[in-house]
Amino acid sequence: MEQDLVAERMRNFLGQHFPATRNVQDEQSLLGGGLIDSLGILEVVTFLEKEFGFVVSDEEPLPENFESVRSLSNFVQRKKTVSANGKGLKPGDYGRLTTGPQTTNRRRRTVDLRREL
């Protein structure tokens, strides 16, 4: 998937769900600038999984992946490359990963992400 197309889809989603991001630049901070909060990260994760067909693990919503439209686009490209090589998780695989005591809670991890900033 072409980088510009991914960035455009991200900007469209962000603009529809987070009004403060309507005129966001690709390098502008979404997290540090307060444009998206921890619950917003959950919405972005859900969008990425549905729109691009891969699973975002509990460890992946990090500032380096979710900081800006550009970092989100790069993240999507990396995930799609891994999935194309047969090494990535597919949406149906997620249920197998979310069982067991070792699995972290996605909401708690996202809130922790905001504390790291």
Keywords:
globular, mainly alpha
Characterize the structure shown:
The chain is mainly α. It has a single domain, classed as Non-ribosomal Peptide Synthetase Peptidyl Carrier Protein, Chain A (Orthogonal Bundle), CATH 1.10.1200. Helix content is 56%, strand content 0%. The chain has helices spanning 3-17, 38-52, 63-66, 69-84, 94-97, 106-116. Helix 1 crosses helix 4. It is globular. It starts with a helix and ends with a helix.
Task: Describe the protein's topology.
Blueprint: H1 3-17, H2 38-52, H3 63-66, H4 69-84, H5 94-97, H6 106-116
Helix pairs in contact: 1-4, 2-6
Average pLDDT value? 80
- How many domains make up the 3D coordinates? 1
If you compute it from the alpha carbons, what radius of gyration comes out, rounded to the nearest whole angstrom? 14 Å
CATH architecture: Orthogonal Bundle
Order of helices and strands: HHHHHH
Summarize the structure.
56% of the residues lie in helices and 0% in strands.
